[in-house]
Amino acid sequence: AAKQDGKNLLRRYQPEMEAQAQALQNAYDLLEQALSQQWLSLHYQPILCINGAEAGRITGVEALLRIRHPEQGVLAAQSFISALDAPHLARPVGRWVLQQAMGQAQYWNAQGLNLGMMVNISAVHFLSPDWLDDLNEALTAHPGLQPAQVKIEITESGALRDLDVAARVMMQSTHAGVRIALDDFGQGETTLRYLQRLPAHTIKIDQSFVRDMIDDPHDYAIVVGLLDMATLLGLVTVAEGVEGEGAMQLLASLGCTHVQGYGIARPMPAEALPGWVAQWSPPSLPKPVMRVMPN
Ligand code: C2E
Ligand code: MG
Ligand code: MG
Ligand code: MG
């Protein structure tokens, strides 16, 4: 009977596994083709400061990868996201994204539009021996850019893959002048314990907690906990996936420093960004309720 069960299980799961393997292969092929055909492109999503001296202002953007497919139009990351960590693709994609995003920020600087530029880098690339060379090469190629304008986003789960190497590379990257953000923060189970070992400048609170924080007491508790901890540690905090006015007001009163989400703006092509920033009018925001260190 056990053997029979095993067979049934296999029969049940094999098509699913084959479909998954096929989907992964398709993502690899698509991203590889996009690289070689120069179909890659970056969209930029504004980041709004909601606490501190710059509250109300758009202080930066996150660069998000898109494929401009000749037949299928603009493809968002979900159609190739699984390929971004492939050993043979992480580095070439990362190098392209770094060069493109820094070139864009440098161009905007020259137009008088100074924005922080947040760039997503696969942990596969970030933790590799090539990373610092690639970073320094890109910085050297863009003298019209302050390295501190650039913030490298690495996922919390990626950093936890090899904590010691991650901590060292974060420190070395910081010495090169850029800043580090821990992306999708809060998803890792060991979050609080390990944060003190990772020299991050910023945490980006994962949108899965932010989206429902108004209705779900558990998500709300997690967001409050992460914000209090990060604030006491002096970290910049970006809440991701802010879709409504209510969430933004609440986050401001909780001391969160920045928000990003469809409620402010969707990611947009580079050409659209300066006009969008020019029409932005600062919202009125509540003062944060302060929590203090015991003395
Ligand atoms: P991420 O870095 O956490 O980026 C945020 C994602 O949330 C983006 O999806 C963005 O479009 C989406 N988003 C922003 N605001 C909202 C909102 O209010 N509601 C909802 N539902 N979604 C929102 P996108 O562009 O599809 O990217 C997905 C993921 O793909 C990124 O998550 C990142 O992990 C990865 N990715 C994107 N670009 C790159 C890249 O250049 N390199 C690497 N390695 N990964 C990238
Ligand atoms: Mg990101
Ligand atoms: Mg994220
Ligand atoms: Mg994400």
From TrEMBL:
Residues 24-281 form the EAL domain. It comes from the Bacteria. This is Diguanylate cyclase (GGDEF) domain. It comes from Thiomonas bhubaneswarensis. The chain holds residues 520 to 814 of 924 of the full protein.
